[in-house]
Each structure stands twice: as C-alpha cells, then as structure tokens.
Specification:
With 162 residues, this protein is mainly beta. It has three domains: 7-69, Histone H3 K4-specific methyltransferase SET7/9 N-terminal domain; 82-112, no CATH class; 114-162, no CATH class. The chain contains two helices and eleven strands, in the order E-E-E-E-E-E-H-E-E-E-E-H-E. It has a six-stranded antiparallel sheet, with no helix packed on it. Strands 10-9-8-7-11 form a five-stranded antiparallel sheet, with helices on one face. Strand 9 (134-136) and strand 10 (142-145) form a beta hairpin. It is found in: Cell projection, Cilium, Flagellum. Keywords: Cell projection, Cilium, Flagellum, Repeat. Its main location: other. This is MORN repeat-containing protein 5.
C-alpha cells in the first residue's frame, strides 16, 4: 500500500486481502465490499469523489453485473436510456421536481447552477481556465490539462463565467 498510495481497512487471510473490507485509492475513490485473494470479489460498491457510485457483483476483480448511480440519484441504464436526449431534454431535477414557469430557464441539472469563476468555463467535471488550459474540480483540485480538441470543445459548448 505504501507504494501505491492506497489504504486498506479489512481482514487478511494468509497475508492476502480477504473478507469484508474498505479499499481507498489515491484518487479518493473507495471500494466497500467483499475481497478475495486481494481482489474485489462478491458484492461491493465503488464510491467516487463526485458523489456517484457503482454497485456491482465482482468475480476476481471483474464486474459481472453493476449499476451506476449519479450523485443526484439518476441511475444509468445501458439500453433505451432517454435522459437529456432528443426525446426528452429535461434535466433529472426537472423530471423529479417539475419544470420552472415559462421564461425561467434551468441551465444545468443543479439548480441554482454553480457560480463559474470569471473567464472560466464549467466543463462538467470542473472549471476550465482557457488561459492556463487547466481543469480543476469543483473543490479547486487539479484534474488535468486540456489538449487542443478538448479546449476547442469546451470553448464552443460550455457555459462561461463572465
């Protein structure tokens, strides 16, 4: 663990991670569930820093069946998923809470939307500064540098903080 930056809280059998456990990755993603022979095995959930989660049944580290739930409670469906597409353009919070009166637009699923720092863009997983080309998460932690394609897409399509 000291080499990977991960943390394990759980049982060991013959020096291997096994039984009920919590495994915390350096990215702050957490796995809570069953381990066997040092791998995710059985029922377990990955909790992501964004607040989303992935509940799954694992077999020797591989997913057999799982369900992804976004931080707002929306569950992803791999087939016939019509969330925010050409069939139904409402955000999940609008589906749950209803539409706003005519003339009042809801710009994001979060209502009211996040305040975007001046000159930056909200690119979905954080704020993008086009001058430095750095994307930081909503807690102001570094995520990545944007390449030319991502920069162009963000500037063309994302909301800007004026």
């Amino acid at each position: 663990m000291q080499y990977t930056g991960s943390k394990y809280i759980g049982e060991y059998i013959d020096g291997r991670m096994e039984g009920k456990a919590e495994y915390i990755l350096p990215t702050e993603t957490r796995y809570v569930g069953d381990m066997k022979d040092g791998m995710f095995h059985g029922e377990g959930t990955l909790y992501f820093p964004s607040g989303s989660r992935y509940d799954a049944i694992w077999d020797k580290g591989l997913v057999i069946k799982g369900t992804y739930t976004f931080s707002d409670g929306l569950q992803y469906e791999p087939k016939n998923w019509h969330y925010c597409d050409s069939y139904d353009r409402r955000f999940y919070t609008e589906i749950c809470n209803g539409l706003k009166p005519a003339g009042i637009s809801q710009l994001t699923n979060m209502d009211p939307p996040r305040k975007i720092p001046k000159g930056c863009y909200d690119c979905g997983d954080g704020f993008y500064d086009p001058v430095t080309r750095i994307i930081k998460d909503y807690r102001n932690r570094y995520l990545r540098n944007a390449d030319d394609d991502e920069h162009e897409w963000i500037v063309r399509t994302c909301r800007k903080g004026w």
